[in-house]
């Protein structure tokens, strides 16, 4: 996990240079979250599709996904090197010049979203490693931030998203920011592309995903404990959400992804 430049910190949640070796070709699960995912592979174009929807497959030197409630199938060979970024909803507007709502549920290439950054893969091609390429990515992001002087996300929406992330009920969040529930739903949907309740589900799922990752690394996996700590009513509730959002149970995810987790120990690559 690389340090994020202070000017970018409201917009870039994480910046990861990854270099992962695998026993053989396979599929990595791209998990839903409250962040937008941006991947810049270095060795070969990246193939990504919504799981179970081969017609959605995109192959390219960049991959961008908006908020989504279903898993993505990310293809890998024997080795993957590249840079992965997690952007806040405000980051889409600040760095790409588009609201996150315009990207929700979509798998795209960077040129589709931000044509002014379409040459970034070429600029990264000469770097010996993903870590060496990080300064080039940072420069590109800072340049983009200066170019896209769009109106910022409304402060009340920013606060509402923060409250929803923490698990505050939708009605209480609306009251806190001074809106009716209907008005809040409109504002959140216009900014993030999902309703407040869905955003809250994504935040809870992301917490459970992070907890499962840490549990897998420690070798002490307790789905019941993860369910309680993530804010689910019970283990069955967590299982239903994982079935929809990950396409598998938490324990199946550990079995499928644990080699990836082991290989990225210390890098904390976002899944």
Automatic annotation (TrEMBL):
Highest rank taxon of the organism: Bacteria
Keyword DNA-binding belongs to the record: yes
Domain HTH araC/xylS-type: 164-256
Keyword Transcription regulation among UniProt keywords: yes
Membrane spanning residue stretches: none
Sorted UniProt keywords: DNA-binding, Transcription, Transcription regulation
Molecular function (Gene Ontology), one example: DNA-binding transcription factor activity
Any Pfam family: HTH_18
InterPro entries recorded: AraC_XylS_family_regulators (IPR050204), Homeodomain-like_sf (IPR009057), HTH_AraC (IPR018060)
Name this polypeptide is given: AraC-like DNA-binding protein
Lineage of producing organism: Bacteria, Bacillati, Actinomycetota, Actinomycetes, Propionibacteriales
């Amino acid at each position: 996990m690389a340090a994020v430049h202070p000017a970018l910190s409201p917009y870039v949640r994480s910046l990861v240079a990854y270099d992962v070796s695998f026993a053989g070709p396979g599929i990595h699960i791209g998990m839903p979250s409250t962040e937008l995912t941006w991947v810049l592979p270095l060795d070969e174009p990246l193939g990504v599709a919504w799981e179970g929807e081969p017609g959605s497959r995109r192959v390219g030197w960049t991959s961008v996904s908006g908020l989504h409630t279903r898993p993505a199938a990310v293809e890998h060979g024997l080795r993957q090197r590249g840079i992965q970024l997690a952007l806040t909803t405000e980051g889409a507007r600040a760095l790409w010049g588009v609201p996150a709502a315009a990207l929700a549920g979509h798998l795209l290439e960077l040129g589709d979203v931000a044509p002014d950054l379409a040459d970034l893969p070429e600029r990264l091609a000469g770097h010996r490693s993903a870590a060496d390429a990080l300064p080039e990515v940072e420069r590109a992001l800072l340049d983009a931030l200066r170019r896209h002087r769009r109106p910022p996300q409304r402060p009340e929406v920013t606060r509402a998203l923060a409250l929803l992330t923490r698990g505050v009920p939708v009605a209480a969040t609306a009251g806190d920011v001074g809106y009716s529930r209907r008005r809040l739903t409109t504002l959140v949907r216009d900014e993030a592309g999902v309703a407040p309740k869905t955003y809250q589900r994504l935040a809870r799922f992301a917490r459970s995903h992070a907890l499962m990752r840490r549990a897998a690394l420690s070798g002490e996996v307790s789905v019941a404990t993860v369910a309680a700590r993530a804010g689910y009513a019970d283990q069955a509730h967590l299982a239903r959400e994982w079935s929809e959002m990950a396409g598998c149970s938490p324990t199946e995810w550990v079995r499928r992804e644990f080699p990836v987790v082991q290989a990225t120990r210390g890098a904390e690559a976002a899944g």
